């Protein structure tokens, strides 16, 4: 049986271009980048080359790039670094209902520490209205955090407009760019963000490496304590090979993203057209707004998303449902309920996220398999009007 991967928003394989520099770095560049001897200096050089490649990708200066372990750590450092670094007695943070748990649970922790947090609603298409951000700002607002692209829907948020609103009010702006990087242009200066999170394993680099862009003169409190690595913001001996891989992945994205995005957008629309044409009572969530070109979230009324996911897996197709297991029960995706789907509609939705390995033939095979599986599931469980 062939195995086809349609879950690139969960994670990507390490690309061969990246492996070509990552494996030699793992093998040969083992010095500690803080050591004075030649082994240390070689590691330092590799690290700084990776920092420059990443800076070129983001259009920032190399010293604004902090390497760390991934998107979750980048979000934590941005949020706790700003809020704890601010001396005011009363503090307020603005974020949205559709953020990744790395942001939402950081904000929940801030609330336990006495910080007020506003969670902004989004439109039925999964987009934040900048006017709502403006209205939510208070004199004690210290941080606004709005993701660039949503992981489940792919919806692209009006980050540049929100950054301008934040700055007009003197508030620091962070954006989680984990799902945007490598899929849509990311120019941190054009976007106007102060802080921007990225993750290696979403851009064909390995797990365990990420980046936080920290704009010059934006001061963060330390959240970890140790040596002076990464401007003191991320103490600990650097993951040089991981950074080398990240730099190579960023460079690949800078050079190839435009063409690859067009290819993925074509495949995505082929997938959506094919599924809508062959499966009745099916809807594309957030179809009407700007989305990352690889992401499609589709609702199959009358079908349990998880049952469909398993049926597809048995046929060799890997996709995802946004459902999360919490306290033993399967909760529907918080993103899908935030766009107004009821629990059963949210549970009947699946995410297809395309990537470099996917071809037209794979997409066509996926469409046929989805059509067959949905018809069978509806016949097996004719719980509603959907008898297939
Ligand atoms: N932010 C978003 C939007 C994500 O999609 C993810 C991963 O799924 C993360 C943050 C967390 O990144 P990492 O897995 O590198 O910690």
Order of helices and strands: EHHEHEHEHEHEHEEHEEHEEEHHEH
Mean pLDDT: 96
Q: Note the gap between the termini.
A: 26 Å
Order of strands across the main sheet:
2-8-7-6-5-3-4
Low-confidence stretches: none
Number of strands: 14
What proportion strand? 5-15%
The biggest beta sheet reads: 7 strands, mixed
| Rg, Cα atoms, Å | 22 Å
Number of helices: 12
- Look at the helices and sheets and give the structural class: alpha/beta
Please bin the fraction of helical residues: 40-55%
Can you list the ligands bound to this structure? Answer: pyridoxal-5'-phosphate
Principal-axis shape equals globular
Tell me what you see in this structure.
With 388 residues, this protein is of the alpha/beta class. Helices cover 42% and strands 15% of the residues. The chain has twelve helices and 14 strands. The protein is globular, with a radius of gyration of 22 Å. The model has no long low-confidence stretch (mean pLDDT 96). It binds pyridoxal-5'-phosphate. Pyridoxal-5'-phosphate binds at residues 70-72, 75, 100, 102, 147, 151, 176, 178-179, 199, 201, 210.
């Amino acid at each position: 049986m062939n195995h086809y991967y349609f879950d690139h928003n969960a994670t990507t394989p390490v690309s061969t271009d990246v492996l070509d520099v990552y494996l030699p770095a793992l093998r040969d560049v083992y010095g500690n980048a803080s050591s004075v001897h030649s082994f240390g200096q070689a590691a330092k050089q590799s690290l700084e080359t990776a920092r420059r490649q990443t800076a070129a990708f983001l259009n920032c200066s190399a010293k604004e790039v902090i390497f760390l372990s991934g998107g979750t750590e980048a979000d934590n450092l941005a949020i706790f670094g700003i809020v704890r670094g601010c001396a005011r007695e009363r503090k307020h943070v603005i974020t949205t209902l559709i953020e990744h748990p790395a942001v939402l649970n950081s904000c929940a922790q801030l609330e336990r520490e006495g910080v007020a947090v506003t969670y902004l609603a989004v439109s039925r298409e999964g987009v934040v209205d900048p006017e709502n951000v403006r209205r939510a700002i208070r004199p004690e607002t210290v941080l606004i955090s709005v993701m660039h692209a949503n992981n489940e829907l792919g919806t692209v948020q009006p980050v540049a407009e929100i950054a301008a609103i934040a700055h007009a009010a003197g508030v620091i702006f962070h954006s989680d760019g984990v799902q945007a990087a490598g899929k849509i242009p990311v120019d941190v200066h054009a976007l106007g963000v102060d802080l921007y999170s990225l993750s290696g394993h979403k851009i064909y680099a390995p797990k365990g490496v990420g980046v936080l862009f920290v704009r010059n003169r934006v001061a963060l409190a330390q959240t970890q304590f140790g040596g002076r690595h990464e401007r003191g913001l991320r103490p600990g001996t650097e993951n040089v090979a991981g950074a080398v891989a990240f730099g190579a992945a960023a460079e690949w994205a800078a050079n190839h993203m435009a063409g690859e995005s067009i290819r993925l957008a074509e495949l995505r629309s082929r997938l959506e057209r094919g599924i809508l044409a062959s499966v009745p009572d099916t809807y594309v969530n957030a179809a009407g707004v700007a989305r990352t070109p690889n992401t499609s979230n589709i609702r199959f009324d009358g079908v349990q998303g998880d049952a469909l996911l398993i049926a597809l897996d048995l046929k060799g197709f890997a996709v995802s449902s946004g459902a999360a297991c919490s306290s033993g029960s399967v909760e529907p995706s918080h993103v899908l309920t935030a766009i107004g789907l009821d629990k059963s509609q949210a549970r009947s939705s699946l995410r297809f996220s395309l990537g470099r390995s996917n071809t037209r033939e794979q997409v066509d095979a996926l469409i046929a398999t989805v059509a067959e599986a949905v018809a069978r599931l509806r016949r097996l469980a004719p719980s509603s009007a959907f008898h297939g």
